[in-house]
Amino acid sequence: MMSLKEELDAIEAKLEVVDAQRKELHAKQRDVYRRSLEAAEEDKVAKDSLAAMLSEDSPFPIREIEYPLQIEGIAWDDRPPPVWDTRMNEAGKWVKVRPVGKEYGGKTYLGVMLGAMALSVSARQNSETGLLHLSHGHHNPAMYVPDLKKVIFGMGSWWGYVESPDDLKSISDVDIENVWYVRALKELEG
């Protein structure tokens, strides 16, 4: 019977073999994409733009990630978030919010727009500098609803700005039914 150390050494040896095979197969795969660039149209395995990206000749070559990574520092990208809807930048404005979810009973609440809030973070490493670059992603309007004591996101609610006292009327089922994508979904359902 093998000792635990011998068992672990055997597993690590097998992993090294599998890793070498994987690297060899990735090299063969890149070669196929490289040859696809020169192939006749009917023999191509991918569009040239994709084949170029997946081959070694690409400015963005596929490279094996070897762990552990050596990180020399962390840098937050200081680019402003991409905001496709300028209304998300109107922090401090009053909003009417009807959260989705049975627990809210179809009620509309008064809230305050907080602005575009990131829902995730992405990371990429610069292999030349060793810096790990972090950036926020997937922004969505965030609104604080005092009655609920929670932040409700635009993707989880029906909402609109309160510009006048008339706007304080609740968001009704009729309003929701008249949104183009709700109508389209209902038409698809038949």
Features:
190 residues; 2 domains; 6-stranded mixed beta sheet; elongated
Can you walk me through this structure?
- The structure is a single chain.
- The protein is an alpha+beta fold and 190 residues long.
- It has 2 domains: 4-54; 73-189, no CATH class.
- The protein contains 4 helices and 6 strands.
- A hairpin with a 4-residue loop joins strand 4 (131-145) and strand 5 (150-153).
- Helix 1 packs antiparallel against helix 2 (48-54).
Structural class: alpha+beta
Number of strands: 6
The total count of helices amounts to 4
Task: Tell me, briefly, the overall form.
Answer: elongated
Uncertain regions spanning at least 5 consecutive residues: none
The Rg value, from CA coordinates, equals: 26 Å
Instruction: Tell me roughly what share of residues is in helical segments.
Output: 25-40%
State the separation between the terminal residues, measured CA to CA. Answer: 66 Å
Largest sheet report: 6 strands, mixed
N-to-C SSE string, H for helix and E for strand:
HHEEEEEEHH
Averaged pLDDT, please?
80
Query: What proportion strand?
Result: 25-35%
Total domain units: 2
Nutshell version of this structure?
With 190 residues, the chain is α+β, with helices and mostly antiparallel strands. The protein has two domains: 4-54; 73-189, no CATH class. Helix content is 30%, strand content 27%.
